[in-house]
């Protein structure tokens, strides 16, 4: 096992990794930007090193500074968390060439899975169904027109290098296809420095179901069952749960098998997620692999009892998985809500500022993963997620009731948050009945005006 790990991230995931290190008896070294210098979790690491100014490009995205901090602190491994450099193959490669183990998959696997068009090709080869569409990037407008006609409208234009819901556009008719393609290319170039786009059939009101996988460096790969993340706004997840409700057991097994096949086909090592869309006939289609730990990993931890961050560290240290597929048995039900400092009444605009009061929920089945405390000032420079409220109970209905109670206990003052939105969701019949899809928030809960 490693003696010391550098945590190349910030906020709740940095704290989550520091906690996992403590439980493993590994020292942790935090890095921080000047905007995060007052962050309370820094004191929980064994050491904290300032790596630059507030802008991510000067700190959390700055590879030379992170490597310099790793050298100074004399660590053996680097955990990238999620976001920032977590899926940057160049970073993974540089870490390893500087003799720091990168806690994540190989740079080759990240490269292969990072481009969605390539990941789909791996899926097809592994006999995992994918959304019908162009087999690779769109080469010409004429090709797009022909393909879209064959698939039938609406179609979805997606960025090959896309992520975070960016660079995606629905096109409902041929007359707007060329303009939409151009707009998507521009958006993709600006966001990912890669203008390559591809076409997919737009699945009508799908559910988003993903499978957590783990693979060690000794050739063992297994899955930790599924999560439903259909509650989304602008393709960004709001609520997640494990296991996915209302999918037949046969489909659940097929999804798990598909994820393991994909892990094996891509030579994947460490934790990863295979994302699928499920249509109204319970047919599933692979959409992408997330080659990192995800925000919603706790719901899987709650139902399987397996600590995913510890597993990531153990795998990176060369350990074998200590359990088999048959020993992974999901029990009970878990929900997670993302608490963002955003104003749901004003188009979710970010609400940075100081937290003046904070009352945390407790009691049976409640977990709070967050780096914020009273008096903490949320910097305007980064993501607006300030915490994750996770609950666990014997079944979905009981877990929903625990979540309602916990959300009512949770009070954050000083900034606007998404708590009121979550209180509404956990009182809505459609959601409680498991009858939601990825369009439900914008279609039913808060219809977009002038759409
Ligand atoms: P990103 O990497 O930007 O998050 P994904 O490919 O994971 O993009 O898709 C994000 C979300 O967009 C999905 O969960 C789903 O809600 C929607 N989506 C993606 N592909 C399709 C599709 N072919 N049809 C309908 N919705 C889709």
Q: What would a concise description of this structure say?
A:
With about 450 residues, the chain is of the alpha+beta class. Helix content is about 30%, strand content about 25%.
The small-molecule ligands in this entry are: adenosine-5'-diphosphate
Mean pLDDT: 96
Q: What is the name of the CATH class of the largest domain? A: Alpha Beta
What is the gyration radius calculated from CA atoms?
21 Å
The proportion of residues in beta strands is 25-35%
CATH topology label of the largest domain: D-amino Acid Aminotransferase, Chain A, domain 1
Span from first to last CA? 54 Å
Number of strands: 22
Catalogue the unreliable spans.
none
Task: Please render the helix and strand layout as text.
Elements: E1 4-7, H1 11-24, E2 27-33, E3 47-52, H2 63-73, E4 77-79, H3 89-97, E5 101-102, H4 107-114, H5 116-125, H6 141-151, E6 155-159, E7 168-171, H7 177-192, E8 197-201, E9 207-215, E10 221-233, E11 236-242, H8 249-265, E12 270-278, E13 284-290, H9 297-304, H10 308-316, E14 333-340, E15 342-343, E16 349-350, E17 353-354, E18 357-359, E19 366-369, E20 377-378, E21 385-393, H11 396-409, E22 411-413, H12 419-425, H13 429-432, H14 440-445
Parallel strand pairs: 1-2, 1-4, 2-3, 4-5
Antiparallel strand pairs: 6-7, 6-8, 9-10, 9-12, 10-11, 11-14, 12-13, 14-21, 15-16, 17-20, 18-22, 19-21
Bound molecules: adenosine-5'-diphosphate.
């Amino acid at each position: 096992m490693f003696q010391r790990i550098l945590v190349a991230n910030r906020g709740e995931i940095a704290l989550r990794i520091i906690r996992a290190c403590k439980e493993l008896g590994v020292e942790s070294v935090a890095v921080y930007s000047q905007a995060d210098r007052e962050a309370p979790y820094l004191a929980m690491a064994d050491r904290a090193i300032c790596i630059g100014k507030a802008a991510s490009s000067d700190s959390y995205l700055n590879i030379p500074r992170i490597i310099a901090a790793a050298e100074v602190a004399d660590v053996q491994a680097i955990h990238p968390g999620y976001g920032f450099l977590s899926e940057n193959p160049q970073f993974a490669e540089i870490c390893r060439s500087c003799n720091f183990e990168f806690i994540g998959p190989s740079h080759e696997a990240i490269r292969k899975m990072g481009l969605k068009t390539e990941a789909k090709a791996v899926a097809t080869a592994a006999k995992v169904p994918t959304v019908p569409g162009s087999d690779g990037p769109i080469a010409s407008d004429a090709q797009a027109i022909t393909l879209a006609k064959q698939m039938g409208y609406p179609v979805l234009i997606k960025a090959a290098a896309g992520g975070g819901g960016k660079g995606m556009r629905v096109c409902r008719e041929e007359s707007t296809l060329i303009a939409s393609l151009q707009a998507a290319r521009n958006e993709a170039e600006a966001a990912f420095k890669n203008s390559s786009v591809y076409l997919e059939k737009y699945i009508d009101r799908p559910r988003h179901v993903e499978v957590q996988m783990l693979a060690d460096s000794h050739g063992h790969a297994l899955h930790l069952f599924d999560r439903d993340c259909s509650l989304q706004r602008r393709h960004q997840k709001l609520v997640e749960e494990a296991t996915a409700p209302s999918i037949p057991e046969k489909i659940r097994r097929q999804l798990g098998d598909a994820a393991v096949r994909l892990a094996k086909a891509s030579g994947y090592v460490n934790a990863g997620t295979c994302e699928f869309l499920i249509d109204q006939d319970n047919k599933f289609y692979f959409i992408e692999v997330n080659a990192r730990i995800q925000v919603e990993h706790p719901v899987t931890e709650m139902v399987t009892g397996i600590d995913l961050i510890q597993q990531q560290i153990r795998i990176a240290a060369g350990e074998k998985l200590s359990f088999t597929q048959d020993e992974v048995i999901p029990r009970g039900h878990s929900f997670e809500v993302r608490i963002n400092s955003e104003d749901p009444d004003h188009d979710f605009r970010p609400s940075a500022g100081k937290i003046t009061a904070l009352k945390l929920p407790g009691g049976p089945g409640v977990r709070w993963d967050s780096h914020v405390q009273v008096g903490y000032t949320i910097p305007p420079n980064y993501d607006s997620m300030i915490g994750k409220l996770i609950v666990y109970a014997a079944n979905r209905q009981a877990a929903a009731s625990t979540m309602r109670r916990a959300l009512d206990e949770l009070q954050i003052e000083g900034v606007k948050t998404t708590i009121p939105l979550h209180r509404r969701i956990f009182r809505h019949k459609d959601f409680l009945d498991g009858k939601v899809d990825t369009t439900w928030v914008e279609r039913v809960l808060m219809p977009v005006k002038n759409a």
